Amino acid sequence: MTVEIICVGTELLLGNIVNTNAAFLAERCAGLGLACYYQTVVGDNEGRLAGVLGTAMERSDIVILSGGLGPTEDDLTKEVAAKVCGKELVLHEPSRAAIERFFAERGTVPTENNWKQAMLPVDGVVLDNPNGTAPGVIMETKAAKVILLPGPPNELCPMFDSNVVPYLNKLTTRVICSQTVKVCGVGESRAETMVKDLIDTQTNPTIATYAKTGEVHIRVTAGAEDRKAAMKLIKPVVKELKSRFGNDIYTTEEDVTLEKAVAELLLANDLTVTCAESCTGGLLSARLINVPGISDVYKTGIVTYSNKAKKNILNVKKSTLQKYGAVSRQTAEEMAKGAAAFAKADVAVAVTGIAGPDGGTEEKPVGLVFIACCVKGKTTVDKYRFSGNRGKVRESAVAAALVLMRRCILEYFSEVTFGKKEK
Amino acid sequence: MTVEIICVGTELLLGNIVNTNAAFLAERCAGLGLACYYQTVVGDNEGRLAGVLGTAMERSDIVILSGGLGPTEDDLTKEVAAKVCGKELVLHEPSRAAIERFFAERGTVPTENNWKQAMLPVDGVVLDNPNGTAPGVIMETKAAKVILLPGPPNELCPMFDSNVVPYLNKLTTRVICSQTVKVCGVGESRAETMVKDLIDTQTNPTIATYAKTGEVHIRVTAGAEDRKAAMKLIKPVVKELKSRFGNDIYTTEEDVTLEKAVAELLLANDLTVTCAESCTGGLLSARLINVPGISDVYKTGIVTYSNKAKKNILNVKKSTLQKYGAVSRQTAEEMAKGAAAFAKADVAVAVTGIAGPDGGTEEKPVGLVFIACCVKGKTTVDKYRFSGNRGKVRESAVAAALVLMRRCILEYFSEVTFGKKEK
């Protein structure tokens, strides 16, 4: 079964935004075993959009469109797609009520153009949008199934996962299942080398590696007549990966992120935590606080971007800052220890580095970052050299800090256990 | 003159990578005044690639292809494009020598398939690739100019800027320019209603609105014989927008973000700043620290996710937390005042809310956020109700906090100025 992706938006054609929706939809469709041969971007223009959609419906079984469902006059994806599919637009009462509720809850009144979003193709499958006012819709025609999704990624992604995946699953007789083994602290090249023999010899399941910031995801995908049979094919491969990567695997669960794995480790061991951040400026705390339930262990976090703050709040010694500088092993270590004391936390992680674009020197170039992690008084400091712009350096530092936290906590407990055994 | 972008690669179709090349090429082409109506992604497949290229050459003046110029058997963009354009491939001696040099400099030897990259279409314009082994090439046919570029962004981008831009500049006689008016604190629907008459009546310049979290961008675009003439058409429209949106416009500069506008306001007025964050967990500080140079005014930031931290560090009264709760107008106000005192900052902004997915009640639902901003002792608190998942609520809260900071600082200074005038 073939699928084709059409992203609608002048912003894409002008290059103002990068097309992350296409990548998301393509990855999901590949995971569902759908073959995708074309992706197209087209603007909010009736003639061109109708042309592109018509071509796609001729050559593919399923066409997924994103964008152009908003309330403004520019947004005409639904109107054009309904026309091409030969469906009339009618008022969809539940969607109208949802829009009314959406605005009422916010104490505001919808403007006239908002009601346009409640006009939906007759006999279309309406997809609820809990994150916005534009519902999605599926239209079935003889030529193809046409699926319209809103453009904002935070609306499109959850709508796809909760509504479109079950729909697509029903269309195919063969199921494709996959399991992702998530590895941290191992570079992509090394990870790929470690599984190259498996990649070269396997056909079902297949194995693919995906580089993420600070982590590598290894996806094992199998096709079979049902989920149980597919998972049976996947199981021995995952077992083999576990034996190769050991503790560097932080999860094999789809919905567990690196920050969630770290949070679970903290919660399971009843360890309170704090972060002292310089160049990452709050991003590390923010990523940990992504995890619902973290409030049980997350203590105060501190953003100490200035040297003054490092001295006054974290008790970093003036002499340390003068002798080694703010971006140094010594400062990172004192920041972590100071943060643990300030927040009275079991685990404290400190990040200091040069995110750029300015501030780099030959000795301390942009991308140089020191991260310290203190677990119940024992402090580890690592030195990193990240590449890329300011945003990328900071993102890499946050991921590295999570990896280091995980490693230090695991090491702490393996030593504690070992100590007990010795007695 | 029209341009069309075709990106070739299975990894794009599988969603393994995001198509940053398309965004880069699109943005550059828009800047050159070329109209781009279509972008396509297709795999390394002869039939489909030839089909897509043929269609593009029929409907566009210039077709830019990226990817598929590598040395492997999969890479067939050049072979297919030459065939479609009716050009034979011949050995290009300078490219052969360049490949030899490239490997010699690295102390390695090219493999047999590397020489494939020196086979280039007869009478094509060869584009040097100082960053890799695949040269680019331009083929001119009656139907269209066809430009082939390598896929890796670090090869494609410099090749485009140094070789393709001068080539394209010679082709065009008309330029397209645009200016973006960035508005904050006004919803998209309201913004659009406010400019609807302009949108409806203008043809050159055109006006379009783009919704961002917490802000709306209004882009004014004009075509003319040169940049100066285009900007002359844009100027009166921008002036009209300024008179309609007044202080809600935070910039008309392309590279100024909301956080940069706030940072500039702080820096210009020598105001030090701190953030006390609960549900946003460090994201607000992180966004401010996105701005290089903010270190001159950014003091310590505090992430007070727990009530204990709110009490101990920010001096929020126990009775306030008990009587009104952590998510309340009163707590937000005390947080901001406490943060100003703790960090000895002129401006303190505090965020407390329910990001979800849990923790919501009928009285205090998920998405309820209070933001307080204290400027030199004068505190303003606003109540918000955001929609979406945990990530979206937090992102919206961060944007709203920046908008509130900006408003409070502007109000503070208008009052100060007013006070002075009175004397």
Structural summary, described in words:
Chain A contains 14 helices and 17 strands. Chain A is α/β, with parallel strands linked by helices and 423 residues long. Chain A has three domains: 2-171, Molybdenum Cofactor Biosythetic Enzyme, Chain A, CATH 3.40.980; 175-251, Alpha-Beta Plaits (2-Layer Sandwich), CATH 3.30.70; 258-422, CinA-like (Maf protein). Chain A has a six-stranded mixed β-sheet with strand order 2-1-3-8-7-6, with helices on both faces. In chain A, strands 14-13-15-16-17 form a five-stranded mixed β-sheet, with helices on both faces. In chain A, a hairpin with an 8-residue loop joins strand 6 (125-127) and strand 7. In chain A, helix 2 packs parallel to helix 6, helix 3 crosses helix 4 (77-85) and helix 9 (258-268) packs parallel to helix 14 (390-422). The radius of gyration of chain A is 26 Å and the shape is globular. Strand 2 (35-42) of chain A pairs antiparallel with strand 2 of chain B.
What labels would you give this structure?
homodimer; alpha/beta; Molybdenum Cofactor Biosythetic Enzyme, Chain A; 3 domains; five-stranded mixed β-sheet; 14 helices
Summarize, please.
Chain A is 43% helix and 24% strand.
Set down the secondary structure blueprint.
2 copies of one chain form a homodimer.
Chain A: E1 2-8, H1 10-13, H2 20-31, E2 35-42, H3 46-59, E3 62-66, H4 77-85, E4 89-91, H5 93-105, E5 119-121, E6 125-127, E7 136-140, E8 145-149, H6 153-171, E9 175-184, H7 188-201, E10 206-212, E11 215-224, H8 227-245, E12 249-251, H9 258-268, E13 273-277, H10 283-288, E14 301-303, H11 307-314, H12 318-324, H13 329-343, E15 347-353, E16 368-375, E17 378-385, H14 390-422
Parallel strand pairs in A: 1-2, 1-3, 3-8, 13-14, 13-15
Antiparallel strand pairs in A: 4-5, 6-7, 7-8, 9-11, 9-12, 10-11, 15-16, 16-17
Helix pairs in contact in A: 2-6, 3-4, 9-14
